[in-house]
Every structure is written in structure tokens, then in C-alpha cells.
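Task card 7
Instruction: Convert sequence to C-alpha cells.
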Amino acid sequence: MNIVVFTGAGISAEAGISTFRGSDGLWDKYRIEDVATPHAWKKNPKLVLDFYNQRRKQVIETTPTEAHFLLAELQKLYPSTSVITQNIDDLHERAGSKVIHLHGEIRKARSTANDSLIIAIEGWRLDLGDLCPLGSQLRPHVVWFGEEVPMMNKAIKLASEADVFLVIGTSLLVYPAASLLHYVPAHADKWIIDPNAENMHVPGFKKISQSASAGLKTWRSLMKL
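Output:
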């Protein structure tokens, strides 16, 4: 049984990590165009670095939630389980899961001279003057708006082979990530866990209107997993 889990900001919100689209989201304090686009990086790299430094510090200071640990346990019980996330934090990994990050990883940096040169960040700061071994400035290893999503094809392949497809804590408003739902086979058992699930237009999906942790326990009970 191929279980594919697709997670978004809601699973990390329980840990206290600010979401972009919530009422207290980070976008209330910053404009997308100023901190999360290639143009923003060219215009004001220091502002971009400072923004991600704040996010990185927050991630380091938080711990995985019950939902993160439940998914790690699910992967151990069913090794064919895949976790795909839109999140750039490392809470899934710290709970013990193997994860495909669609939008990059906040605790890594990459070379501006060679995209394949990726380096772990020690601590929470990445500043102007921090260079890669090639001598170029390091940038956050995240996918900005307007950039390609390198792991998308791998995620599409997994979604297309799913027997069970579970969505947790995502608004399904960010593309191309949200388009994964279009690749899930018609025969697959499809679920969505989100406090706002009942108000979401996701035809063919069974809905659990609960938080990530509570919803996962309900889902596992219903699935007898």
C-alpha cells in the first residue's frame, strides 16, 4: 500500500511556527515581493537574509509536534509511506521522517554560482559575506516565488502511484505544489485534515476538520492503521 502524505504550514503551526496566510502570518509584516522573489534578492539581499534569519531562529527554537511524530511512526510501520511537504522547516526530519521538500530547507544555504552546491547552516544566521567554496555569496536554500520547483516531478510521480493520499494542514492555494492533487489516481483513498476542511473545495476527498495532531489520530483510527 503506497501512502503519500502531503503537508503544509498547518502541521508546523501547532509547533508555534508562524504561517504566511494566517491572521498572524509573516506576510502581515513583509511583502512577498520584498523578501521571497529573485528580484527581492537582487534589490536588497540583506533584507532577504534578515527575514530568513528570523524564520530560521524560530525553527531552531521549536520542537516537532505530535503530528510529526505520528507520521514518523507511520513511515516505520509502512515503509512505502512518502511524506511530501511544502514546509521549509526540519520538524519532520527531527521527528524521524524521511521527507521530500518542495520549497527547500531553511537550515541549508546554497551557492549563487552553482545551485547544486548546498551547505548546512550552523546556527541561525546567514549574512552578507558568507561565501560558498567557490567564493560566491550564499543564499537561503528555498524556492522563491517565480522559481522552478526542482522536486516537483518526483512528487508528481509519487502522487500518481498513491493508493492512499493524505493532505494535512495546507490551504492548497500555492501552485504548482497544490496541483499534486490532480495526479492522484481515481481509485486512491483521498483524505484531507485541516481545521477548515469542510469549507475547502476538494472533490473526492474525505474531510476531517481537526488540527493536524488530532486529525491524524482520527484518520489512523478510521483507516485501522
